[in-house]
Amino acid sequence: MELDRIVADIAAEMAAMTERGRVADYIPPLAAVPADRFGMAVIMADGTTHLAGDAEELFSIQSISKVFGLTLALGAVGDALWQRVGREPSGSAFNSIVQLESEHGIPRNPFINAGAIVIADVLLSGYAPREAIGNILRFVRSLASDDSISIDRAVADAELETGFRNFALANYMRAFGNLHHPVEMVLGVYFHQCAIAMNCRQLALAGRYLMNDGRVPSAGFCVVTPQRARRINALMMSCGHYDNSGDFAFRTGLPGKSGVGGGILAVAPGIASIAVWSPGLNQQGNSQLGSLALERLAQRTGWSVFEPRKG
Ligand code: GLU
Q1: Annotated catalytic, 190?
Q2: Which of 20, 29, 224, 287 has the most other CB atoms within 10 Å of its CB?
Q3: Does residue 293 lie within any of the structural domains?
């Protein structure tokens, strides 16, 4: 089939690349990931699956978890969330603290670290940290219809040991009253959600609700309303790649969320949920080959949210 060939071609092209970016090295478990990996999974609206390369190899989803955290938090508090987190691209690095001072502790968007930390605080309401972490993990498992998905403890522990900037962000927001729980508890939740390990196939499965107006038809359940799914996609498109978000949108025309583990979840609404993974990162901390692979996929398939509607 045509799409099988496109996906296989892209994986072969990525395997031949020598400019692969730099693997994240702020914690040993990520620094140890071999730079030569590339995986891709495309799951169509009818459930048809196309895999290539290292699509079954587990990696740390890191900031891609912010999409699932946001979805859960919107379910918990609805639009009240927007009083504590903005919806604007930051134009700054993922862990930047600069805007928080002038913007009174309200993070620019849910996909920078500060925003995801506020969301972890929301997810803690009424729960112990262990329960909140369990809720996130259970949610991701149900989205992917896969109970084998788990948290990489070594990654979570290393994040805690080296997370000085995240502690700074959290303390700063707590000083503004935008965190309601103790910083250590909130970051415990945040670090564990970042440490969820998944492969491309599982991640593309977990993203199905975003391609399908909030529903997972093959699994027979509704995750969010169509409007909410569209809004999450809009945020992924405008804010999903930190200060590289505009460039990613320009190159792919698709909503996407990256993580420093080298994964990217992208959505072609109505058509496909796509996951790519290659651990080498570009200057802004997004997967270098993952972005390139998605650009080529979008070009060759014509998938774009900007494609004129026919009829
Ligand atoms: N755990 C990472 C951090 O908080 C996540 C960053 C990312 O994936 O962009 O620093």
Answers
A1: yes
A2: 287
A3: yes
